[in-house]
């Protein structure tokens, strides 16, 4: 079984960019729940159509919906080579369910990378809104508009940031200094992953 890594950080912090580099270098599966939900929405599956209502409003898809999606995905044989979860878990309930489902297979997460960028929430909101509005010009993502971005950041602080404390207690949380350049952030991540024994 390969390495199991989780990426936590606000939208716009650079998780997607770093994730691409990591999965290439370590041969991991890149499991982005946002990408999975957008694909389900485009394919008009029942889960995709249900998810779209929440995604377009910048709200989280209900825990039971997304947990089922990810647990089924992790049961696929290709997950054996290890994976990077990007965008999941996003609530403490999701983290607990993930831990339970791994424990049932005698597994656990190897490391949780917390991509932290700013000292204050005010500073962070300003910069992330700027970045995501900019991204929205080319991404074509309907949730990269200023109003929805502010909602997503609010949801991050209220529902996802508590994960940091949850994972601090489990002891394998590492903070990445995301304010550095893309190669410098990648170097920090690599120095952590290079030292993980699986
Ligand atoms: P992302 O691409 O990670 O920014 O996700 C886009 C949207 O998909 C989010 O704003 C949520 O509506 C939904 N989503 C993605 N991952 C999750 C998750 N783990 N829990 C709930 N909703 C999610």
Task: Walk me through what this model shows.
The protein has 198 residues and is of the alpha/beta class. The protein has a single domain, classed as P-loop containing nucleotide triphosphate hydrolases (Rossmann fold). The protein has 9 helices and 5 strands; from the N terminus they run βαβαααβαβαααβα. α1 (15-26) crosses α9. The protein starts with a strand and ends in a 5-residue tail after the last helix. The mean pLDDT is 94. Residues 11, 33-34, 37, 54-55, 58-61, 66, 87-90, 94, 143, 152 line the site of adenosine monophosphate.
Short précis:
The chain is 56% helix and 12% strand.
CATH architecture: 3-Layer(aba) Sandwich
Number of helices: 9
The rounded Rg comes to: 16 Å
CATH topology (level 3) name: Rossmann fold
**Bound molecule kinds, no repeats:** adenosine monophosphate
- Residue stretches low in confidence (pLDDT < 50, at least 5 long) are none
Number of strands: 5
Helix content: 55-70%
Class from secondary-structure proportions: alpha/beta
In quaternary terms, these chains amount to single chain
């Amino acid at each position: 079984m390969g390495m199991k890594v989780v990426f936590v950080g606000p939208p716009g912090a650079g998780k997607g960019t770093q994730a691409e580099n990591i999965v290439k270098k370590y041969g991991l599966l890149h499991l982005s729940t946002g990408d999975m939900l957008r694909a389900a929405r485009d394919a008009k599956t029942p889960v995709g159509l249900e998810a779209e209502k929440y995604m377009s409003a910048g709200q989280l898809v209900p825990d039971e919906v997304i947990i089922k999606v990810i647990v089924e995905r992790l049961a696929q044989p290709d997950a054996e080579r290890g994976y990077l979860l990007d965008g999941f878990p996003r609530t403490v309930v999701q983290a607990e369910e993930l831990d339970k489902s791994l424990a049932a297979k005698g597994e656990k997460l190897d490391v949780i990378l917390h991509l932290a960028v700013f000292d204050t929430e005010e500073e962070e909101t300003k910069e992330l809104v700027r970045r995501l509005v900019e991204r929205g010009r080319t991404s074509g993502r309907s949730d990269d508009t200023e109003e929805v971005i502010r909602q997503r950041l609010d949801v991050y602080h209220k529902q996802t940031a508590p994960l940091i404390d949850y994972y601090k207690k489990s002891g394998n949380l590492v903070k990445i200094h995301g304010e550095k350049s893309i190669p410098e952030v990648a170097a920090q991540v690599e120095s952590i992953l290079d030292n993980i024994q699986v």
